TrEMBL record:
GO terms for cellular component: cytosol. GO terms for molecular function: monooxygenase activity; oxidoreductase activity, acting on paired donors, with incorporation or reduction of molecular oxygen. InterPro entries: Bact_Lucif_Oxidored (IPR050766), Luciferase-like_dom (IPR011251), Luciferase-like_sf (IPR036661). Pfam families: Bac_luciferase (PF00296). Keywords: Monooxygenase, Oxidoreductase. Residues 29-372 form the Luciferase-like domain. This is LLM class flavin-dependent oxidoreductase.
């Protein structure tokens, strides 16, 4: 098994744990010194994780978070900074929200980071579920936030995601590109009949990609440069793949799904669906292979100390922010009324521990939690530490000690 850390970068001094400071600096997301503190902490964590043996670092894409939470405006740019400071750790936006991007600009930016890191990039791609920013940045494609409810709006988001990814793959694979989309108002070249009046005709005819310019000096194709460092492109990942149709498409597109299904049996069921669809695509994976799972991990010398340190700091932010988006459903237990939503009061660290969304305790407690997953999926490939309630909330030294304890006392038991 391989191990990653997953960051939703949080501005230090934001959220319920620092309520007075967060209100005094409102909106803290525009406070320059506070953001500099975030950059310092994330850089320290990345370098530390690289040195102590973690395999990957993952980061979300979100925008307009004036409150200071999930503060990862441009993960490709952020990870470029971290690539220059680290040596071996894989770097993964998890993920760039494709319906908010121009496909060719995205293909170029990804290729650049792949070169900057010399192939340490793993590319997470996502649909985008937060309407405050997705509806603004996705308006060019008439794509609103994903709702996973089967609505026309959700179908549009699903289709735009697939089309943007398709164009990106073509841009990476082909030396020159000509394409007219029937999903997006997008054509290459533009106009599709060709671009007239290109002054440097002889230059392009002599040195450009074959087919870029025709005998009449009209641009008929474009060459998206550079091509990625990895051939044909970085391995694709997808965060929080829960719906069956997203799991199936991930298998069809060769995407590795990261699943937010705390219960080992639930994860095994999704992994089985992925395995079966991959088999239909000619890829023979073992159960759990080419999938990842995320869990919150907090360790100390005693279980009581771990809960005191990590439990209380994460629950209110998690419940009050993620709860309204439906993420408290991952805490549902069999005895809960299936007709009633999970209330924020139930989104505490005790329930997180009970349903195994969080593993809080001693290193032995955490190892037993990981082993319970492996008992159901012996070939689970990736385990991710979701750092909810840690970076930006706890002292940086505490966060780094937790990572070091995991790296020295847990990883050696399971690492390939």
């Amino acid at each position: 098994m391989k191990f990653s850390i997953f960051l939703n970068p949080q501005i230090p001094g934001s959220g319920w744990a620092a309520e007075e400071n967060a209100k005094a600096k409102r909106p803290i997301g525009r406070d320059v010194e506070s953001y500099q503190r975030l950059l310092h902490e994330v850089r320290e964590i990345a370098v530390h994780a690289d040195r102590i043996g973690f395999d990957a670092l993952m980061m979300t894409e979100h925008h307009f978070h004036s409150e200071g939470f999930e503060f990862s405006v441009n993960p490709l740019m952020f990870l470029t900074d971290l690539a220059a400071r680290t040596e071996r750790i894989l770097l993964a936006p998890l993920g760039i929200v494709l319906p908010a991007w121009d496909p060719i600009r995205a293909a170029e930016d990804v290729a650049l980071l792949d070169h900057f890191s010399k192939g340490r990039l793993r590319l997470g791609v996502a649909r985008g579920y937060q309407n405050r920013w997705m509806n603004v940045l996705g308006q060019r494609w008439h794509a609103a936030a994903a709702r996973s409810d089967g609505s026309k709006s959700d179908d549009r988001n699903f289709d735009v995601f697939g089309e943007v990814l398709k164009i990106m793959k073509m841009a990476w694979a082909q030396d020159s590109l000509r394409y007219k989309s029937d999903v997006l108002d997008y054509e290459v070249p533009a106009p599709y009949s060709g671009i007239e009046g290109w002054p440097a005709q002889e230059w392009t005819q002599t040195f450009g990609a074959p087919g870029e310019i025709d005998e009449n000096g009209i641009i008929q194709q474009v060459s998206v440069c550079p091509k990625p460092y990895q051939n044909p492109h970085p391995e694709l990942w997808q965060p929080f793949t829960v719906s069956d149709r997203s799991v199936i498409r991930a298998a069809q597109e060769g995407i590795m799904p990261w699943m937010f299904t705390p219960n080992p049996d639930d994860h095994a069921a999704k992994a089985k669906l992925y395995q079966e669809e991959c088999g239909r695509q000619g890829k023979d994976y073992k159960l759990g292979e080419h999938t990842g799972i995320l869990k919150i991990v907090g360790m100390a010398d005693t279980r009581e100390e771990a809960i005191a340190t990590y439990g209380k700091g994460m629950q209110k932010d998690f419940a009050s922010f993620f709860g309204p988006f439906g993420y408290l459903e991952v805490l549902r237990k069999k005895e809960d009324d299936r007709h009633q939503p999970i209330s924020p009061e139930k989104g505490d660290f005790k329930r997180m521990n009970e349903v195994e969304m969080a593993l809080l305790g001693t290193p032995d407690d955490v190892k037993r939690g990981i082993q319970r997953m492996l008992d159901r999926m012996p070939d689970l490939e990736w385990f991710g530490l979701f750092m909810q309630g840690q970076q930006g909330v706890l002292p940086l030294d505490t966060v780094k000690r937790n990572l070091e304890m995991f790296a020295t006392k847990v990883i050696p038991e399971f690492q390939d």
